Amino acid sequence: MTMDTRDDVPVIELRHVEKHFGDLHVLRDINLKVSRGEVLVVIGPSGSGKSTMCRTINRLETIDSGEILIEGKPLPAEGRELAAMRAELGMVFQSFNLFAHKTILENVTLGPIDVLGMKREDAEKRAMELLARVGVAEQAAKVPAQLSGGQQQRVAIARSLAMNPKAMMFDEPTSALDPEMINEVLDVMVELARGGMTMVVVTHEMNFARRVADRVVFMADGQIVEEGAPDEFFDHPATQRARDFLDSIKGH
Ligand SMILES: Nc1ncnc2c1ncn2[C@@H]1O[C@H](COP(=O)(O)OP(=O)(O)OP(=O)(O)O)[C@@H](O)[C@H]1O
Ligand SMILES: [Mg+2]
């Protein structure tokens, strides 16, 4: 297969995805394609299904119907294939989820050694490069509790990158951080985006969205209500729901 044809296939595609939690219809006919190198920002009110959608993409949540394709291939339901596919999608959450009793270096080398079968020496060399890239190389021997929230979140990003993911998903990666630490994490994400990483980012950071997103998706009540280029969406939202949402966050 040539690079050209590969690049025509979306890295992530959702087709008619439906999901309920009991009576709650949390994802309604979600159709979405994320192209290689694209930065997609997902915004919307609390409870609109943003996190659930992210979690379905690497099957932390099952779906009721529809299809999820990674590079054109259906997401496997379970087993080793699913584990392999999951390793190809990096995920960074609001809470940092680092292993508390392991050093920063070990947090970053564990996956490459255990899952990718890398030699320790190679995994450590690569981990140090990644830790340097996110600006925390000097913290490598510490444990997570000795780092600030912003530093921990940057380690979480390095840990995901160590698995050479096809795409990175971020679910409100800065919303648990003190204000002075938000930008240091956003800066790392901006660099990743500039480097061509395919990214899905759920965030309330509208300046980041405007500056970095190739496309903004607005969700409400489990549906994609609107999507478009950031300037177009923020300056001329087409729906009343999007206008109401943008007004509500302007007040903060
Ligand atoms: N495991 C679960 N069981 C039952 N209901 C759930 C579960 N997870 C989420 N929900 C419900 O599904 C809806 C969508 O939740 P989700 O977390 O996807 O929203 P969100 O858009 O990420 O919101 P927020 O901006 O607050 O993070 C909410 O009503 C939530 O209460
Ligand atoms: Mg959420």
Give the key terms:
252 residues, alpha/beta, four-stranded antiparallel sheet, 23% strand, globular, binds adenosine-5'-triphosphate, binds magnesium ion
Write the layout of secondary structure elements.
Blueprint: H1 3-8, E1 12-21, E2 24-34, E3 39-43, H2 50-57, E4 65-70, E5 73-74, H3 79-87, E6 89-92, H4 104-114, H5 120-133, H6 149-161, E7 167-171, H7 179-194, E8 199-202, H8 206-212, E9 215-220, E10 223-228, H9 230-235, H10 240-250
Parallel strand pairs: 3-8, 3-9, 6-7, 7-8
Antiparallel strand pairs: 1-2, 1-4, 4-5, 9-10
Helix pairs in contact: 4-5, 4-6, 5-6, 6-7
The structure holds adenosine-5'-triphosphate (ATP) and magnesium ion.
Structural summary, described in words:
This protein is 40% helix and 23% strand. By secondary structure, it is of the alpha/beta class. Helix 7 links the parallel strand 7 (167-171) and strand 8. It is globular, with a radius of gyration of 18 Å. Residues 50-51, 171-172 line the site of magnesium ion (MG).
Brief description of this entry?
The protein is α/β, with parallel strands linked by helices and 252 residues long. The protein is 40% helix and 23% strand. The structure holds adenosine-5'-triphosphate and magnesium ion (MG).
Structural Rg: 18 Å
Mean pLDDT: 92
Main β-sheet description: 6 strands, mixed
In the predicted model, the low-confidence regions spanning at least 5 consecutive residues are none
Q: Find the structural class using helix and strand composition.
A: alpha/beta
Helicity range: 40-55%
